[in-house]
Design a protein that fits this description.
This protein is mostly helical and about 300 residues long. The protein has helices spanning about 1-15, 20-25, 35-45, 50-60, 60-80, 95-110, 115-120, 120-150, 155-170, 170-180, 195-210, 220-240, 245-260, 260-275, 285-295. Helix 9 (about 155-170) runs antiparallel to helix 11. The chain is globular. The relative contact order is 0.10.
């Protein structure tokens, strides 16, 4: 069955003449243009955080350090997970200087020219699409690195691939501390953003493929995943919407696997009544009902 599925995928790629395009994409060099786009969008994301501009004027060093965490956070986090030196990602002087240049231009360019140009929707769409391409390579690189150290360790491969692709978001609380901000409620594990979710999806599918549970060749999976991330991110930016295809799947899994049955909730409520305590809300639906009740009361 696995062989038939693999053959079917090959037939689809051959029918649409996508094999050459997929091979070309898999050999596409990230340096310098795609890396530059990644650095620009990452630093712009930092600049658009509340209070970031004030920090850039008060302490350029703290601003630079935060920017480097945005640019290289995934590599630093994945290095820590693999027991490598966390400064190893910064050993590439060329990439570090390129990221530093993008940081300076985005924050301190005369007349704010670079940020103003990069903020124009057509150019930002192109830069964001290029950044999404680099996401694929980061996830695949993390999965491959973990696989070379721990062969067939599926969980480790997923974790490291996820960390390398979305490390900037996963260590956002540490980055905020550099800017003098402490907001533990913004932890990505408590409320994951779309980039963190789509990176986790990529880490899972690439890990399954590397462990031979997914009957598809690497260059084909690179093409499919990159097409998915670029197309979906572009659609979200053009429509100004935060909805994404993963929302329906996420909602279905949550309601199927993690919502407690109503009978359990009723029993807990009765037990709490007898003990004179108020039960804690356990589902988003409970939060919504309480909010509506509060509004009516006020």
């Amino acid at each position: 069955m696995t062989g038939n599925l693999s053959a079917s995928i090959m037939d689809v790629f051959a029918f649409f003449n996508l094999n050459e395009l997929a091979f070309g994409l898999s050999k596409l060099p990230m340096f310098p243009y795609f890396d530059m786009a990644h650095y620009i969008i990452s630093v712009m994301s930092l600049r658009e955080q509340p209070g970031a501009l004030c920090v850039s004027q008060r302490s350029p060093l703290a601003c630079w350090f935060s920017s480097m965490l945005y640019c290289f956070g995934g590599a630093v986090l994945s290095a820590l997970m693999l027991a490598d030196a966390p400064v190893a990602p910064l050993s590439n002087t060329t990439n570090l200087l390129l990221a530093t240049l993008m940081w300076y231009l985005v924050f301190y360019c005369p007349l704010d020219l670079v940020y103003s140009l990069a903020s124009l929707l057509p150019l930002r769409l192109v830069l964001t699409a290029m950044k999404e391409v680099t996401r694929t390579w980061k996830v695949l690189s993390g999965v491959s690195q973990a696989g070379s150290k721990y062969s067939d360790a599926l969980f480790v491969m997923v974790a490291v691939g996820w960390a390398k692709g979305a490390g900037g978001g996963l260590i956002s609380n540490f980055e905020q501390l550099v800017r003098g901000v402490w907001k533990p409620e913004t932890n990505e594990l408590l409320k994951m953003s779309y980039p963190t979710k789509v990176t986790l999806l990529g880490a899972v599918v690439f890990s399954l493929q590397q462990c031979r549970y997914l009957p598809i060749q690497t260059h084909q999976l690179i093409f499919i995943y990159t097409l998915f991330t670029v197309t979906n991110k572009t659609r979200m930016m053009l429509l100004g919407s935060s909805s994404h295809p993963l929302s329906s799947l996420e909602s279905f899994l949550y309601k199927t696997l993690f919502v407690r049955p109503l009978t359990d909730l009723s029993a807990e409520h009765t037990h709490s009544k007898h003990n004179g305590s108020v039960p804690e809300p356990t589902t988003p639906q409970t939060h919504t009902k309480e909010a509506e009740t509060s509004k009516k009361t006020n």
